[in-house]
Amino acid sequence: MAKKEQTPKIYFLDVTNRDGVQTAKLGLSKLEKTMINIYLNEMGVFQSEFGFPTTRHEARYLEANLELVETGVLKPIRLEGWIRAIVGDVKTAFKFVPNIKHLNLSISTSEQMLKGKFRGKKTEDDIIKEMTDAVDAAKAMGAESIGVNAEDASRTDLSFLVKFGLAAREHGAARLRYCDTLGYDNPFTIYDTMKALAENVDIPLEVHCHGDLGMAVANSLAGAKGAVDGGQDAYINTTVNGIGERAGNADLVATVLALTKSKGFAKKYQLGNPIKLAVAAKIAEFASYAFDVPIPLNQPGVGANAFAHASGIHADGVLKDPENYELYSYKELGRGTPKFVETGREIISGQYSGVAGFKHLMGKMNVSFASRDEAGDILELVRYANVQSHKPLVEDELLFIAKHPLIAQKLLTLTPLVLETM
Ligand SMILES: [Zn+2]
pTM score, two decimals? Predict the structure, then answer.
């Protein structure tokens, strides 16, 4: 296949709001998901897989975030929804979220899943037919970009993956996602496979890695290198703090660091758009708070020990020249500014807060209200946000609600179906 004229590039596609939130025992409120999209946009991440357009309780959140795209609040990030690669899901997605523009269509491709999940009821040809029918339907209904997701790709025969990818491309898919669903690959195998796919399918590739063997970041780097060496753009799937099913996904910050700081990589392989690493600490801390999962002490870049030195030789060395014992500076990750921690009286937001306390709280952030009624309206939204998240809102969430009350109202409106059998 002919290679592109331009050097292929590497992009980030974060899946915290899909893979992260489907993690067992964890979840995010719709406002928290929105904040993640806002921080990802600020960081320069190309795309956020922002949720599930076939899930009824996601619909208002998804539509509200697409409104933020329309009004330029979420710009230039691309928001894409994840569904199964079946026509029924495509129809439901456009019914629930009519303004959806970008979709990822997922179907299992491995022999294991054909036998073990589909119980032998589907052949490889059936898989391709379902996927291409879904791509056709998504195009017909107005999808601007479609990614096709080969689930369990790392346990799928390469020859079938190529056939699957070619069919996706012929039907107008923009990208093929190579999903190492079980974290089975290693950097050597994923490099070879991604390079072969790039050369034989001739379509931009996504690499989606899990940490079951502790190699999610390394595999993402190797997979992206394979795609680029094979002549195609690479889109690395990440999650904030690596939160994802089982042992998790490739951590966003660690993957950015690996791409830009590891030996010789950044000189040879280019990012499609610059990543503002300075947002790293903020997004990691917010995700940790929102998921209620602490950042490990030794987390690359954002862990409490990532720049801590105790032993004499290291402390002396880093004081003489930080580069002696630090590969990059804490300042690059947005760390190092002192934080104000209240140790005395604290007025915080809650689902039973009143106007006086709320005005005091917002006043500390230099937000004032035209009238008591206006303060009351914003407070009403803050109370509902607390009902969903069960914890005090962070400053950025309060500011978001004050600035975008009508969007917040949509995010916070959850109306279950009428139960006809009750
Ligand atoms: Zn996954």
Answer: 0.95
